[in-house]
Amino acid sequence: MAGIENLTLSHFRSHRRAEMQLDGRPVALFGANGAGKTNILEAVSLLSPGRGLRRAMAEDLARRPEALGWKITARFGAGASAALQDLATWAEPGRSRDVRINGKAATQSALAQVVRMVWLVPAMDRLWIEGAEGRRRFLDRLTLSLAPDHADLALAYEKAMRERNRLLKDQITDPGWYQALEARMAASGAGLMANRRHAVARLMAAQNAGQSAFPTADLVLIGPQADPMPMSEADLATALAESRRRDLAAGRSLTGPHRADLGAIFRAKGMPAAQCSTGEQKALLIALLLANARALWQDTGTAPILLLDEVAAHLDSNRRAALYDELLGLGAQAFMTGTGAELFDSLAGQAQYFEVVDQEGLSTVLEKDGT
Ligand SMILES: Nc1ncnc2c1ncn2[C@@H]1O[C@H](COP(=O)(O)OP(=O)(O)O)[C@@H](O)[C@H]1O
Ligand SMILES: [Mg+2]
Question: For the chain, does the N or the C end have fewer beta carbons within 10 angstroms?
Answer without folding.
Answer: C
